[in-house]
Write a structure and sequence with these properties.
Rossmann fold; Jelly Rolls; 8-stranded antiparallel beta sheet; 12 helices; alpha+beta
């Protein structure tokens, strides 16, 4: 990434200012301004997230916000209520109070002497979510948004559930917030009140995983901040951004199709990162694109940004399977609108272990094939969303396919470019009232290596929707549709397209209450692939992206190195298989503030033999933050298990003040949770 040290505007930084909410709570903001902004007001850009601008996101903020400010904007980074140095307690994600606070913040920004009254909002993940949510609130000063790695539907794409199946990322995300919500504010900013504010947080933020597990269907809890409930609420222009290795990309297609405002979509090969830091690469000059967007919508500069195609995507080339790609070869393609007028649907009928493009439901022989997948099916599946903490991408799918029904095409006589959202229609029956199906689409090379290119999940009790699931009648046949994640991939000549169907996909998905045998009827089941005819001339004419740029990186001094790994072990004596994921960032000092941080998280997902009741997820976190005689540490532990009837959660939180140099400590808060939550067809 190229470091930019000279900008059109000199930038000054306001380390902290407080914004008063109507109820008296103060939100903490860090602000980057062109030096002359108070004499020559400029538009403003808001990023509004709970991840601590003073320390945890300081490195990322220092890359992004001075760059934006240097191009003539007030760039404002605000911590949500109850996070960082903001007052109050954060009790859940995407609450109405969060959106109301944001509207107050935007109004405050628009009235500052350095702002010309025009405000944009941007963010990735949480910040991408609430950019959409706040746009639907229509604060008058908000003129446009950039939403990266986010969704329009909190139930469908939000780390909790997929196709009505419980994602293990539900536990992972709850662990992240458990740790963040327990960290104290900085006494250098909030003064002597820091300890009382900290105690308020650790005592009252709550156990979020319990809340999320208590809403297993698509009810009002999820609808409250899902803009797909009424797309017309969003009245300002939207730039939606994501990556194929992320978990949120499907929302970009829906936003392009359903919004009725000026809009752009961008999908690269990346995981859960801004595209100028994107992994797998190639990363792009995303901050240049950000400035172009704001120049057009906040400054009225006619730079042609809206003359370009609505949706731009990185069409990926075929590659051998690898859980850790540094780069994904491919090329940029585009579509003028979505749904695209250029795509054709190609259908393949499932026959006896084959995908036949010539057969139809009228001509193909119907056969009943059964599968009861081992619990190990899914261990090569990677994460629901890659956080660029590889190796968290899927491995060779031959490791999974021994426990699945497999259907393949003949070697392709011509290359096939599949772009969009594939679908699989299945005729199925199960021997239990609750069952799931995992469907994977792979690119099989002539040497047999199988690279997963997309997948989909369906809890079969959600076959008619997730608002009111209904149990299966064992043995009865059902016609179901499994929606696969969006993709842009070229299958080369001589390769095969493989469809794999399994009844488990752990640990990406929590197993069904009982092991199930699924019967799939061939002849009446089919795959529908959106095929894009090559348009090389159009694609070659796309405006190239610039090289990744950012402002000067944050200066830190590493004290202790960290460790990151994914390790799978199988104890042959006990038949226990365990996936251990360690993300230890070590210990380092932010040189500018003298703040010392340590962040370490370890996750374990395990099972014994093929016993679905043995499925277990455990997470542990350590968060240390300190400076001089201010030294704090929080440790959390969460365990999720289940029976056929219930989910069982145990969790612990311990918060300490201590003197590391004299080896003395005081535990200021300790809490334990034991919760049992009935399973509701999950």
């Amino acid at each position: 990434m190229h470091t930019v040290t000279s900008f059109p505007h000199q930038v000054r930084v306001i380390e902290n200012t407080f914004i008063d909410m109507p109820d008296g709570v103060r939100l903490s903001a860090r602000i980057w301004l062109p030096e002359d902004a108070e004499n020559n007001p400029v538009p403003a850009v808001l990023e509004y997230i709970p991840y601590r601008h003073r320390d945890t996101t300081r490195a990322r903020d220092d890359l992004n916000h001075p760059y934006i400010a240097g191009h003539g904007y007030a760039s404002v980074r605000v911590d949500l209520r109850g996070s960082g140095n903001s007052g109050g307690v954060l009790e859940d994600e995407y609450l109405e109070s969060e959106q109301d606070d944001a509207c107050v913040v935007i109004d405050w920004i628009s009235k500052q002497p350095w702002c010309d009254g025009n405000v944009g909002m941007m963010g990735i993940s949480w910040g991408g979510f609430n950019s959409l949510h706040v746009a639907a609130k229509r604060p008058p000063a908000l003129k446009a948004i950039i939403s990266a790695s986010a969704t329009d539907d909190l139930y469908v794409d939000n780390m909790h559930y997929m196709g009505g199946c419980l994602l293990s990322d539900n536990l992972s995300e709850a662990t992240v917030m458990f740790a963040f919500n327990s960290m104290p504010p900085d006494p250098a900013i909030v003064g002597d009140a820091w300890r009382d504010m900290w105690l308020d947080r650790v005592q009252n933020s709550g156990l979020w995983v319990e809340k999320w597990l208590s809403h297993q269907h698509r009810d009002d809890y999820w609808k409250r901040a899902s803009v797909n409930e009424n797309y017309a609420d969003v009245a300002c222009p939207v730039f939606a951004v994501g990556g194929w290795a992320d978990g949120y990309t499907n929302a970009i297609f829906r936003l392009m199709e359903n919004l009725d405002v000026p809009r752009k979509g961008l999908i690269g090969p990346w995981g859960h990162k801004y595209p100028h830091q994107g992994v797998p690469g190639p990363a792009i000059g995303f901050l240049q694109e950000v400035v172009r967007w704001w120049d057009y919508w906040l400054k009225g500069i006619d730079n042609g940004v809206m003359d370009e195609p609505m949706l731009r995507m990185w069409r990926q080339d075929s590659v051998p399977p690898n859980p850790s790609y540094p780069e994904r070869p491919g090329r940029w393609i585009s579509e003028p609108s979505w749904p695209s007028p250029h795509l054709d649907t190609r259908e393949y009928t499932l026959t006896r272990f084959a995908l036949d493009p010539e057969a139809t439901s009228d001509t193909a022989v119907r056969r009943d094939l059964t599968v009861r997948s081992p619990m190990s099916s899914g261990m090569a599946g990677g994460k629901w969303a890659s956080y660029a903490a590889t190796p968290d991408l899927p491995s060779d799918q031959r490791e999974e396919d021994g426990g699945a029904l497999v259907f393949e095409t003949e070697p392709l006589g011509e290359s096939l470019e599949v772009v969009g959202l594939p679908k699989v229609d299945l005729t199925v029956a199960a021997d239990k009232p609750v069952a799931m199906v995992a469907v994977r689409l792979s690119d099989v090379a002539p040497d047999g290596q199988a690279t997963r290119v997309t997948y989909g999940l369906l809890n079969l009790t959600h076959r008619d929707g997730s608002a009111d699931p209904q149990p299966l009648e064992p043995g009865r046949r059902y016609e179901v549709r499994v929606k696969l994640n969006g993709m842009a991939h070229e299958f080369p000549i001589g390769h095969r397209i493989r469809l794999s169907i399994s009844t488990s996909y752990f640990p990406l998905v929590w197993p069904s209450p009982e092991a199930t045998t699924l019967t799939v009827t061939t002849g009446s089941s089919r795959v529908m692939l959106p095929v894009r005819p090559r348009r090389d001339a159009d694609d070659a004419g796309l405006r190239p992206f610039g090289e990744p740029e950012a402002a000067e990186p944050l200066s830190v001094t590493q004290i202790e190195t960290g460790e990151h790994h994914w390790r799978t072990t199988r104890d042959l004596e006990t038949a226990v298989t365990t996936l251990e994921i360690k993300d230890d960032q070590g210990e380092f000092v932010i040189d500018e503030t003298g703040t010392v941080l340590r962040r370490a998280t370890t996750e374990w997902f395990s099972f014994q033999g093929n016993d679905v009741e043995s499925a277990r997820g455990e997470t542990q976190t350590v968060r240390y933050i300190g400076r001089g005689d201010w030294q704090t540490e929080v440790r959390t532990r969460t365990v999720l298990t289940s029976t056929p009837e219930d989910f069982v959660i145990t969790a612990q939180l311990d918060a300490y003040e201590f003197d590391r140099f004299h080896d003395t400590s005081r535990r200021i808060h300790s809490e334990n949770w034991n919760r049992t939550i009935p399973r509701r067809l999950v």
